[in-house]
Write a structure and sequence with these properties.
- The chain is α/β, with parallel strands linked by helices and 310 residues long.
- It folds into two domains: 2-200, Rossmann fold (3-Layer(aba) Sandwich); 205-289, Formyl transferase, C-terminal domain (Methionyl-tRNA Fmet Formyltransferase, Chain A, domain 2, Roll).
- 25% of the residues lie in helices and 26% in strands.
- It contains seven helices and 14 strands.
- Helix 1 runs parallel beside helix 6 and helix 5 packs antiparallel against helix 7 (216-226).
- The chain is elongated, with a radius of gyration of 22 Å.
Amino acid sequence: MSAILVGAVESSRIALEVMARVPQCDLKAVVTLAPHLAHRHSDAVDMAAAARALDVPVIAVENVNARDALVRIAEVQADHIFVIGWSQICGPEFRALAPGGVIGYHPAALPRLRGRGVIPWTIVNREPITAGSLFWIDDGVDTGPILDQHYFHLSPREDAASLYRKHVRALEIMLHRSLPLIAAGTAPRIPQDESCATFCARRTDADGEIDWAAPSSDVLRLIRAATRPYPGAFTANGTGRIRIWAAEPTRGGDGGHLAAPGQIVARGNNGFTVRCGDGGLVEVTEWSNESGKMPALHSRLHGEPCGTTQ
């Protein structure tokens, strides 16, 4: 089986390593973003360097559906195209370049959570179990037949980084068992059950803004969902925006602290504690801002990037 891999992130790199090792797979090229476009992915990796280290030719593109990209991909003449870690919709002309089909990876238990921003949404939506899905890409968005799925549980303290690692592992497991089936022409094509479909809207940096009036459990969940490799949850005080990368629930959130939601009630050597809308306390354990200065005790955090402390 000859194949092309399209991708630009850590999961793409793992797919590259597996596809280069599996004897039934002849990886003929890697298609990735031109270096000046790496900023499109918060978890971007240098796929060109990884491919060249394995003697796999590299095709750098801006859009896989553009005419020049289609011509260069067509010249490779591969049976299958794998799209793993790529944010562009695969148009009909692109899909027609792979006579055996185009295969994608989605970090959810399709048909649940189709769409964008899936790893953060998985945490925000309190999904107790999820899966990685390999599927045959069709003219819909994450709607094609299922090739393979690998299920796993989410920890109550799951964050974006740990969930990302679980998906990378799921992808590795599925590729090892699916590539021989694809090469043999026996890979499954299981239709998705449309009655079970749910959809994720695109998430932006603004979706990481913390509402301190919310219950402390919701604040903690948002911080876990938005942490690295994503831009991070954020709040602000009078000196500007503060990124919060990690936080813990703190005992004492029983109404004993008479403070407004978002008000800092304690400071330590490396972090600070904030009261939430339900009286619960959140201890911020990892944070960053431009000044590097911790916000003052009793100051109030809020949503305006450069507002006045209340």
